[in-house]
Specification:
The chain is of the alpha+beta class. Helix content is 44%, strand content 17%. Helix 1 packs parallel to helix 3 and helix 2 packs across helix 3. Bound molecules: zinc ion.
Length: 420
């Protein structure tokens, strides 16, 4: 299977300016071609016979019209602008299919700087086979922070995040041999915890963004206070970018550890196929979920289960995993988000809400019997959960509010009743 590998480079100052130059060339080609396509689209409004150029057409025009005007194009690898044109054309295709918005012009210095290199066998890692250096066309030997896993690859992407540079490439690997008698696991993805597994393992949410948000706000204010174009503003922007990178690193570390644990140690991983868009509509929940990086979680599980020879099962998103009693008595009742413990009125089973849900997710299979919701426990849920500490995280606040208004309503009428 094809796996991609990304690691940090250790370029010297000269190499950094070469990188920046390559990024500049790629950006220039991208913006030039974007302007051309926009122009053609306006012509097409009156004359439908004009064709939208393909990536190859665009490259031909670039070589004929643009390169002679700007000699610095020849100082960088030709694949950098070429790939930028291909990317732009793909972006426009997605726009025509209404998958995404119209591609925008790229600004200098905004994060997301990158370029593509392809020079066949010239890209080779390692002198003395230690794998700690890589040779890139037009740039030369560059040191690395860690050894590369393989001996040669054909193309790579160099990218920048804050002031750090990374190399990414794809390589062919064998699937790993794993023991066949691994257990099945169900995972409940939460807000309070990052994930709760049906075997009782809990992964805490690092809540990186929330932890750093005060510092982030301070740095953001500092950027705003500095004069535009000044070097002090540049310094402030770079500090803010570094903090953003730190947050995303903390997040990705937690998720990588979780997904590797799940895929490596289990023959089947079952997760809820959450409807993320609907979740994100609730802005307070959005903060918590965005903090965990749900999309990334699913993407990693997809390739890691392949790598470790295990299976990923998506549980039907309408399966009421948190409402059913996991001790096989088939009882089901409403579970508002504030109830942190599941109390079963049928069999007396009591369990942490998320663990109960995870166990139900583990039991799930296509066509499983879903019991009718009983009203038995609804009235008892509010006082019963008074034992648990109310969740202080504001993520559940809105949902809680809804529940609270209902409860106070009921209490009011009760009070009136007792007084009357
Ligand atoms: Zn029960």
């Amino acid at each position: 299977m094809l796996l991609s590998f990304k690691t940090e480079l250790k370029p010297n100052n000269k190499q950094v300016s070469k990188f920046r130059q390559h990024c500049g060339v790629a950006r220039h080609a991208y913006n030039w071609a974007n302007a051309i396509i926009l122009e053609i689209l306006t012509i097409r409004e009156t004359d439908k016979t004009v064709k939208i150029p393909s990536a190859i057409d665009l490259h031909k025009r670039l070589v004929a019209e643009v390169k002679p005007l700007y000699p610095w194009y020849y100082e960088s690898a030709k694949t950098a602008p070429q790939q930028a044109l291909t990317e732009l054309r793909t972006a426009w295709d997605r726009c025509f299919k209404k998958v995404s918005k119209q591609p925008r012009f790229k600004k200098k210095g905004v994060s997301g700087d990158s370029f593509y290199l392809e020079q066949g066998t010239k890209v080779k890692p390692g002198i003395n086979n230690d794998g700690k250096r890589v040779k890139l066309p037009k740039i030369g030997w560059i040191r690395l922070h860690e050894s590369l896993p393989i001996t040669a690859f054909h193309n790579c992407v160099i990218s920048r995040k804050a002031d750090r540079w990374f190399i990414a490439f794809k390589y062919e690997t064998e699937k790993l041999v794993t023991p066949s008698d691994r257990p099945v696991v169900g995972v409940d993805i939460g807000i309070k915890e990052l994930a709760v597994c049906s075997n009782g393992q809990v992964f805490t949410n690092p809540k990186a963004y929330r932890r750093m948000s005060r510092k982030m706000k301070r740095l953001q204010r500092r950027v705003c206070a500095r004069v535009k174009g000044s070097s002090n503003r540049k310094k402030a922007v770079s500090k803010l970018a570094k903090l953003h990178l730190k947050v995303s690193n903390i997040r990705s570390d937690a998720i990588h550890k979780l997904t590797t644990y799940l895929a490596k140690n289990h023959s089947e991983v079952k997760i809820e196929d959450l409807h993320i868009k609907a979740f994100l509509k609730n802005h307070k929940l959005a903060g918590a979920i965005a903090d965990c990086g749900m999309y990334e979680f699913k993407r990693q599980l997809e390739y890691k289960t392949q790598k470790f020879n295990s299976k990923l099962t998506l549980v039907d998103r309408f399966f009421p995993s948190s409402q059913i009693c996991s001790s096989c008595c088939n009882h089901r009742h409403k579970m508002p988000l504030k109830n942190r413990v599941y109390h079963c009125p049928e069999c007396g089973h009591a369990e942490d809400r998320d663990l109960n849900a995870a166990k139900n997710i583990e039991r799930w299979f296509e066509g499983i019997f879903v019991p009718e919701r009983s009203e038995l426990a609804v009235s008892s849920t509010a006082p019963a959960c008074g034992v648990d500490k109310p969740d202080s995280s504001h993520a559940v606040a809105t949902v809680k509010q809804e529940v609270n208004t209902k409860i106070t309503h009921v209490q009011l009428s009760l009070d009136l009743g007792s007084y009357g």
